[in-house]
Design a protein that fits this description.
By secondary structure, the protein is an all-alpha fold. 74% of the residues lie in helices and 0% in strands. The chain contains five helices and no strands. Helix 1 runs antiparallel to helix 5.
Length: 103
């Protein structure tokens, strides 16, 4: 459970960083748009993004890259980071023991 909570906080922090970047970009440019995963990945490491497509197509299946991963790369980075964080928070929550409950 602790590992889930630590990962959830890490993903929440990264989603917050991306949100702050989007808000600063909005303040500077005057137009608001959410950074998509593909742009974020390209900004962080363009070479790995360019190598990922042929690797997935060659060693797994071309179908996995073009309709599946390429669609996910167009989704907002906040959602891709935030939704797994919420799921990890839910799985990492502390559960109350039924022994100590009073009905």
């Amino acid at each position: 459970m602790l590992l889930f909570r630590v990962l959830a906080w890490g993903l929440t922090f990264l989603a917050g960083v991306v949100l702050v970047y989007d808000l600063i970009s909005w303040a500077m440019n005057g137009s608001f748009h959410l950074t998509d995963v593909g742009t974020l990945w390209f900004t962080l490491d363009a070479n790995s993004l360019q190598l990922a497509e042929p690797a997935v197509a060659r060693y797994l299946h071309p179908f996995i890259w073009h309709p599946v991963i390429s669609t996910i790369l167009l989704w907002p980075a906040i959602a891709i980071l935030g939704v797994p964080a919420l799921i990890l928070f839910w799985f990492g929550r502390r559960r109350r023991s039924s022994i100590f409950r009073s009905n």
